[in-house]
Request: fold
Amino acid sequence: MDINEVESRNLNQDLKILLVDDDERQLRALETLISKLDLEIIKATSGQEALKLMLHNQFIMVILDMVMPDMSGMEVARLMRGSKKTQTTPIIFATAFSNDEVQMMSAYQLGAIDYIIKPVNEDILLSKIKVFRDFHIYQQQKQEESLRLLSELQEKNKTLEDTRMAVMDMLKEANEARNQALIAKSELEQSLEEQKAIERKLKIAIKKAENANIYKNNFLANMSHEIRTPMNAIVGFADLMKDLNLSVEERNMYAEIINTNSMQLLRLIADIIDVAKIEAGEMKITFDRCKLNNLLRELEIQFNQLRLERGKFHVNLVLDILPEASFCCITTDGARLNQVLTNLLNNALKFTENGEIRFGYEIKNNVLLFFVQDEGIGIKKDKLKLIFERFQQALPEESVKYGGTGLGLAICKGIVNLLGGQMFVESEPGKGSKFSFTLPLKIVEEASGEDENIVYDIEMKQIEGKTLLIADDNPSVQEYFIEALKPYNLKLYMANSGKEVVDLYNKHPEVDLVLMDIRMPLMDGYSAIEEILAINPDAVIIAQTGNVLQDDEKRCLEAGCKGFLAKPILKNDLIKVIKQYC
Reply:
C-alpha cells in the first residue's frame, strides 16, 4: 500500500466494537448507549456468529454476554485466546450475577480485563470503553505520524536526487560551471540538514509510539497481576476451607488470609474508582473541621504497627509536628487528607529497608506544608516528572519487586489539587525521597469535650425511639448497622431484598425512615422505592449504595429519595442523616 494512501486513512475507520448477546433488546440498548462514542458497532446474537465476524474484522473491544444458549461467553473467550488474531482483543463480560466469585475468577483466567453487571451502569461502561478507544486512537495517531514523516523523508530523498542531476547538467555548461557548482553545493547542504531533522523527528515519533505501547502493556500486565494474586489466595483458601477436618486454628488462619486479600482487592478497586472520579471531575470533597495533630498521631500508631507487621525492624518512624498546635482544628477534607498521607507513607515504608521515615507538617507564609521523607531506594532525576502520571512507576522492575499499579501518586496529586494545594518531590537514587504538598491554612475554633457531650445528648434525645427499616442483602452490613445504632434505642427492621422491604413497610406503617440499598436481589432498590412511594408518597427514603458517581446520586434523588449515603458508611454520617430526616 502506498504511504500517502495509508496516511490519509480516517483514524475512526478501524474503531469497531463487537457486542455479543442472545437478547436482541439488550443489544439494541447497548448499541444506543455506545453510539454516543462515534464507533462502528457490530452485533452478534450467538457465539458462533461472533467468532465468524472476528475472522474478517479487527475489533478494539468485545462486550460479551456470559450466558448464551449455543455457546457460553466463557467458551467464546477461550477460543478467542487460542487465536493469534484475537488473543489480545480486550474482553468485557456482561453478567447478571454480581456475587459469583468463582465465575468471575474463571473469566479473569480466560483473559477478561473486566466485567459489567446487568442492568448496565451507563457512565461506568462508557468510561471503560473510552479508555480502550483512546489507547487505540493514540497508537493509530503515532503510526500515522511516523508514516507521514517517512513520506516527507522519501520526498526529500527524491529532491536530493533531482538536485544531483541538476548539478551534473550544470557542470556540462562550461561558462557557468563554477557558479552553478556553488549553488548546487548550497542546496545540497540545506537538503541534507532538512533530511537529518526529519530523521530525528521520525526517531522521536517512533520512540513515543513504542513507549505508549510499553506503558499500556505494563499497566495491563500489572493490573492483571494485582487482581489475580489476591484472587488466587481468596479462591484457593476458600476451597481449602471446605475441608471438614480443619482445626479451628487452621480455619481462622484461612479466614484471615481471605480477609487480608479481599481488603487488598478493595483498595485496588477504590484506586481505580478514584482515578475515574478525578478524571471525570466527580470526586467529592467535603470541607469540615479536622483535628490536625490527632490525625497525624493516629497515622503514626497505624504505621508503626504496619512497620512491625512487615518486619521492617530497622526502619524508624518519626512524627514531626507542632506541639503548640495540639488543639488546633483546620478546615479541610480530613478523610482525603488522610488518604494522601496514607498513600505516601505506604510508599515510603514499601521502598525503605533501613533508616528513617519522617513525616509531619510545618507552617510557612500562612500555608500548611506537609511532608513524608524516607531513606529508601530513591528515584532517578529523569523519572521524577513521570511518577505523578497514571500507570507510571519510576522503574519497570519495581512493579515486579514491590507490586502496585502506578495509580497512587496520580490520585494523591489529584486530591491535593482539589483541596487547593500543590504537590512536590525531591529524590536521589540510593539516598531516599521527600514528597511534600501544600494546603491552605484555615484555622477554626475547636469544640470542647463538654460541648461534644452536649451534642451527643441532644442527638440521643432527638432520634431515640424512632423506627428504621434497613434494606441490605449483606448480613455483615446489617450487623454493622445494628451495632452502630445500638446506643440510640431505635427500633430496627431488617430486609434482605427489595420485595421484603416493601412487604415490611406494608406491615409497619410506623416506620420513620427507610435506608434503602440500591442493588438487591428479587427486586432492586429503584423498584422498591417506587412501590413504597405508591403506598405512602411522604415516605422518607435514604439511598445507600456503592455506586458513588454524581449521576448515581442524581438518579436516586430523582427516584424519590430524600438523601444519599455512599458506602462505606461511617457512623457519624449515618447519625447525621437520621437526625436530619427523622
Notes: The chain has a mean pLDDT of 81.
